[in-house]
Amino acid sequence: MNESQSPTYLIYGAGAIGSVLGGFLHKINRSVTFAGRGSHLLAIKEQGLRITGIWGEHLVPPEEIDILSDPLNREKRYSTILLSVKSKDTETAAREAAELLAEDGIMVSIQNGLGNWETIARLVGEKRTVGARVIFGAEIPVPGLAKVTVNADDVLLGEPFCPVNRALLQTLKDDLRLSGIPARAVSKEEIWSALWGKVLYNCSLNPLGAILEVPYGRLGENEETRMIIRGIIEEIFLVCQALKVPLPYKGADDYYRFLLETQLPPTRDHRASMLQDILAKRKTEIEALNGAISRLARENEIPTPYNDLLTLLIKFKEKRESQGPGPQG
């Protein structure tokens, strides 16, 4: 990026998180284009984008909303693409978005789970791949409205493989901070550690909350569910040891205490995203979370019965909801 040029942002996957990021970047007069589908994108195109919640009230009027109308039109290239799609859609979305990325641009994974960074790097190159750890929560109560519900920590940005366009990475970090979204750039080791830290959190709570259909707080209050959570965590630490993944915790017991005492309280009323996906008849991200742990464990001959079982139960629940209720006895 030339020093005199401003970045051009493409939000590829304008769901809840993508809408918040795009709306806040627009607030500081950055060039932002939204790409997505469904009723939410149609609503923001016709009525504008409203953002509410813990970071205040904001409105992007419809006349200022720029929608990517034709993904196949490759005349315009974007310096920074924020890929904010479900892990199951990474391959398709990254392949499409790659055609819209400037030669010296960066594609930033704003996603949960394992394997996304490697997929993006395979499609756009390691020198254009940026990893992010996003740990604020958002939802879409009605189409056209994105609500920020919780923020557990800063957005972290890092280079998972090798140096990228540092000017663009620095500008993204500065733009997020200027817009009101806390953000930091971290080292390669720190961004991988942060990714696995979020995987620990998601694997411990998300599928269990979806299966039992209770908010996260209930999981921490119950002795039986705490035992399951502990088993999940112990298995993930065994996988991390085998893969030599650096984690900012002394061990499974240390993270278990951190989860219950620090991470759970502010998100006690949060509903699992997997449950929201299942109720909406969408596929969940189980394969990029507990399913990924099970696959990596098998490759390293590590037994992971807790993660295996949760993966199977979520898959059953996905199929049951998509097929409708069975015959009544």
Structure description:
This protein is α/β, with parallel strands linked by helices and 329 residues long. The chain folds into 2 domains: 8-186, NAD(P)-binding Rossmann-like Domain (Rossmann fold, 3-Layer(aba) Sandwich); 192-323, N-(1-d-carboxylethyl)-l-norvaline Dehydrogenase, domain 2. 47% of the residues lie in helices and 17% in strands. The chain has 12 helices and 11 strands. The strands form 2 sheets. It has a 7-stranded mixed β-sheet, sandwiched between helices. Strands 4-3-9-8 form a 4-stranded mixed β-sheet. Strand 3 and strand 4 (58-60) form a beta hairpin. Helix 3 (90-98) packs parallel to helix 4, helix 6 runs antiparallel to helix 8 (223-243) and helix 6 (188-212) crosses helix 10 (273-279). The protein is globular and about 55 Å long. The mean pLDDT is 93. It catalyses: (R)-pantoate + NAD(+) = 2-dehydropantoate + NADH + H(+); (R)-pantoate + NADP(+) = 2-dehydropantoate + NADPH + H(+). Pathway: Cofactor biosynthesis; coenzyme A biosynthesis. GO terms for molecular function: 2-dehydropantoate 2-reductase activity; NADP binding. Catalyzes the NADPH-dependent reduction of ketopantoate into pantoic acid. Catalyzes the NAD(P)H-dependent reduction of ketopantoate into pantoic acid. Residues 191-318 form the Ketopantoate reductase C-terminal domain.
